[in-house]
Amino acid sequence: QKKMILDLDTGIDDALAIAYALASDEVDLIGITSTYGNVVTAEAGQNSLRILELLGRTDIPVYLGLPHSSTTDHFDVMQVSKDIHGVNGIGEVSLPTAPRAVENKSAVDFMIEAARQYGDDLIIVPTGPMTNLAAALAQAPEITALVGNVTFMGGALTVPGNVTEVGEANINQDPAAADQVLRSPFNLTMVGLDVTLRTLLTKKETQLWRDLGTKSSVAFANIVDYYIDAYAALNPQLHGCALHDPLAVGVALDPSLVQTIGLNMKVETEAPFAARTVGDVDRLDLPTTNVQVAVNVDVPKYLQRFMHRLTALFAH
Ligand code: BDR
Ligand code: CA
Known about the structure:
- The protein is α/β, with parallel strands linked by helices.
- Helices cover 41% and strands 17% of the residues.
- The protein has 13 helices and 12 strands.
- The chain has helices at 12-22, 41-54, 79-85, 107-118, 131-139, 143-146, 169-173, 175-182, 193-196, 203-212, 215-234, 244-253, 299-315, and strands at residues 2-8, 27-34, 62-64, 122-126, 149-153, 188-191, 200-201, 241-242, 258-263, 265-267, 277-279, 291-297.
- Strand 1, helix 1 (12-22) and strand 2 (27-34) form a beta-alpha-beta unit.
- Helix 1 packs parallel to helix 12 (244-253), helix 4 packs across helix 5 (131-139) and helix 10 runs antiparallel to helix 11 (215-234).
- Bound molecules: beta-D-ribofuranose and calcium ion.
- Calcium ion (CA) is lined by residues 9, 11, 13-14, 37-38, 127-128, 245.
- InterPro entries: Inosine/uridine_hydrolase_dom, IUNH, Ribo_hydro-like.
- One of its GO terms (biological process) is purine nucleoside catabolic process.
- One of its GO terms (molecular function) is purine nucleosidase activity.
- This is Nucleoside hydrolase.
């Protein structure tokens, strides 16, 4: 069985990523690390604890990561994040504060220790800024050769960004960290806006959860309906909310859900193209590539699997 660490800025689609991982028998979620983005890092940790409590998985440890990007000393949640995920990150649905606390160990130390312990069996799935992973890489560069795969949600290769013309939200929070990770020897899979904007959920699906009538199915229906309404207001051309972060989990577990192209990539760190994920011209001639970039996705297969797994999880 594969081991997985989710590195989340727990947000609504991050919460769906937790549910997808817990609903997947082929993987053991060994811990959740927390980052900033949709909410501040401490709140991301609390939201992860709340979601785990809701899903009855109080055995999974939650760790706090760094509070801001590698090139700043402060982080404020952007207004657009509050609009999409709600001020509390989970669609203004009030879930009780979890009775347990986050772990004392830092997210970065946990990642490094897990890489040493599980090696090739470990998949790290960052679905927020990659500040924690870049810090782990700086502290213990040997983990790049140990970890099986890093499947991250972020970036945009063939489509525009969602927070700037070229910048996707997660990469845009810390372009320098993302650049360090992409240019490292990690075995990487990029699940960016190229594919995540094609996997959309509507109220037809959340109604099925609501009809189940369990505590978790109704809570998730309420949380995701907030996200669907926000998407309708901000992206009326889309007809549903994008399942960004759970797609990264789906692809990490079954790469056949997407078509990829192999590239050596970098992230622009300077204006005017900061946060753009792009081929690294300095490494174009290398015989090997370290990033598989998802450029096409089997939408019906993924959506069916997503609904099948989450509905079964929420049913009991
Ligand atoms: C990404 O940004 C965050 O708001 C979402 O949770 C997702 O990880 C999409 O650009
Ligand atoms: Ca996220």
